[in-house]
Amino acid sequence: MITLISYFVLLLAALTLTTFLFISLNKIQLI
């Protein structure tokens, strides 16, 4: 159970990081 929760947290963190990186790239292209 703990492993499943840890995996879910890791997946959520990766998704957030990817989204933040994508937004940063879009802002750089706009400039």
Question: Roughly how many Å is the radius of gyration?
Answer: 14 Å
Helical fraction: over 70%
Give a count of the beta strands, DSSP E runs of length 2 or more: 0
Helix count, per DSSP? Answer: 1
State the low-pLDDT regions, or none: none
Sheet/helix structural class: mainly alpha
Mean pLDDT rating: 91
Kindly describe this structure:
The chain has 31 residues and is mainly α. Helix content is 94%, strand content 0%. The N and C termini lie far apart (46 Å).
How are the SSEs placed, and which strands pair?
Elements (H helix, E strand, L loop, with lengths): L1 H29 L1
Key terms for this structure?
about 0% strand, 1 helix, about 30 residues, single chain, rod-shaped, mainly alpha
Structure summary:
With 31 residues, the protein is mostly helical. The chain has one helix and no strands. Helices cover 94% and strands 0% of the residues.
